[in-house]
Recover the amino acids of this structure.
DNA sequence: TCTATTTGGTTGCTTTTGTGACAATCTTTT
DNA sequence: AAAAGATTGTCACAAAAGCAACCAAATAGA
């Protein structure tokens, strides 16, 4: 038991969890986004919108944002750009004329199918690389984080980005 | 055993690891960045620069970027802004006049000390919230990821953001 | 029913990031 | 040494993200 009076707890950036998490996320995202960027020239909001619609079929812009954690302006722009590409079309809701139901066109669905497969392969490959143990730890750690901020989520920061 | 021919492996966005990782990182970062943004009006590149200099003392811009995973333009701008704030000063290197050695002023060091403490507390609190198990899993998962992309890092994507 | 409030979505503006080119300086090669 | 190549840091421009105001339509309240 040393008489070790620490004047300053040193902060080691590379050990600091928020930093590590960010770096990991960027690192992985960069790799995966190559898949949809190089091939299709999609941005991340566009990819997320595509993924959400592919997963659920028709959805409103708000629902997309909710599900994919994007601010509504991001969704709005992504929808516009996917529409221009003719991967998505808008269907008006007769009951509530503020909203539109968005759905993928056959071309959009085709791209989705391809990208969903790439995503799946990417993840499989990642887990192989991490090893059974590493993959399990990562998933468990993420689950713990998600449980934590699900509890914490204030009504003021519900879904947005 | 059903004759369930899956035409399409469905992609569940909220289960997709890159998405989860991003969301987790943003979620945590948002919380922590509040600490340095509200109080000091720092951006993340500025915080990382401060943290690196606080950790190591004088360093060049390149070394900062290397250590904190930031592109050199980010470092350049962060350095400029910290200098304007008089938290950092540049010292020329007589041996190599391309570089400058950057170090914190007393004011910068003071802010660093405070922020380092906040960071430390933040992490401690986080681990408490995650529980012993969750914290351990998260750290192990991050370590596995880091080991993976350390192996993978091509000479073309060394340090940059 | 008429007004006030909320909700869904878009647009414009500002700030932040990403990219490529550049000037200056060092290093290597011939 | 001179030429070619690398490295350091900055700048200008383009793309993306964040913010707040806004319109239109629905809902709630008096």
């Amino acid at each position: 038991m040393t008489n070790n009076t620490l004047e300053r707890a040193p902060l080691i950036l590379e050990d600091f969890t928020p930093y590590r998490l960010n770096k990991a996320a960027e690192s992985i995202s960069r790799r995966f986004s190559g898949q949809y960027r190089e091939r299709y020239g999609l941005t991340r909001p566009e990819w997320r919108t595509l993924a959400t619609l592919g997963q659920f079929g028709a959805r409103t812009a708000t629902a997309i944002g909710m599900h994919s954690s994007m601010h509504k302006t991001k969704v709005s722009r992504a929808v516009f750009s996917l529409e221009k590409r003719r991967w998505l079309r808008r269907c008006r809701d007769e009951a509530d004329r503020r909203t539109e139901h968005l759905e993928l066109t056959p071309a959009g669905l085709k791209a989705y199918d391809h990208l969903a497969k790439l995503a799946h392969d990417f993840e499989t490959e990642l887990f192989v690389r991490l090893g059974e143990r590493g993959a399990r730890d990562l998933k468990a750690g993420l689950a713990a984080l998600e449980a934590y901020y699900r509890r914490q989520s204030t009504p003021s920061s519900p879904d947005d980005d």
In short: Chain A touches chain B through 61 residues (CB under 8 Å). The CA atoms of residues 90 and 145 of chain A lie 36 Å apart. Residues 60-62, 72-73, 75-77, 79-80, 96, 98-100 of chain A lie near DNA strand C (CB under 10 Å from a C1').
